[in-house]
Amino acid sequence: MTLTEFRYIVAVAREKHFGRAAEACFVSQPTLSVGVKKLEEQLGVTIFERSKSDVKLTVQGQKIVEQAQTILEQVDKLKLEASQNSDQLEGALKIGAIFTIGPYLFPTLVPELKRLAPKMPLHIDEDFTHNLKTKLRNGELDAIFVALPFDEPEIDTIPLYEEDFKALLPAKHPWVKNDSMHLANIADEVMIMLGAGHCFRDQVLEACPQCRDNSLNPQKDWITGSSLETIRHMVASGLGVSVVPASAAEFQNERLELVTKTFADPVPSRKVALAFRRSFPRKDALKVIEQAVELNKLQGTKSL
Length: 304
Fold this sequence. Notes:
By secondary structure, the protein is an alpha/beta fold. It contains eleven helices and twelve strands. The strands form three sheets. Strands 3, 4, 5, 6, 9, 10, 11 and 12 form an eight-stranded mixed sheet that branches. It has a two-stranded antiparallel ribbon with strand order 1-2. Helix 1 packs across helix 2 (18-25). The two termini are 44 Å apart. The mean pLDDT is 88.
């Protein structure tokens, strides 16, 4: 077995397609297919289930691909350590974030990283948590910004900040005059929330059982939006009220005539962390990201 064959199976697992994997590895599809078949024969297992329309990892194949990814990263680490005057802050870094973090974190993070690590451009991806997790494990991403808890084998996290949830209301809503409000009050209004798959939606429903119960009630108004910014405009138009994280709370509110309100205790909140593979060799790059986040605290957040 060879490192090249390991790269082949990692690429197939990532692309879920032999043709695209071959393009990513800069080889012909027959060459890649022969390499994968040879590795399967050497190991005595079937790594991929193949059909005309799909390629799936077997249970054993998943473990083998994960180990192959670890080996490839260790080889990269060895090369890095063997190279004199190596700089972990040189070269592109592939980083991802969930949809409710990226648009508010990256505008401050990118300029700060450009100052702290000018030779480390960012390749940025925004996606759902479950997709980012897969990309991280497959090596498509080096690190991802996620909400805790985030418990995955061979994955470590660096806690970054905590932020409260806030109510987002039209400026003329009667609650604007109240000194405080409880999250449960939201359940009595027309709720505008993110759609299924967004972890922030799940966190709000977890913190508010009444909201969760109403979300299952076909007689209760329940509106979904594809992003926090879409929801912001829906609230501004008068469709209902919503809940947003503090880092996204004040964006364009004055122009859209929106108001945010702080919830009374117990105040719902979330913790945000940077997740990375334990075997990832460029730990200095992760440290400088942590530093950049700390130097440019998002509005409404507090360090962990």
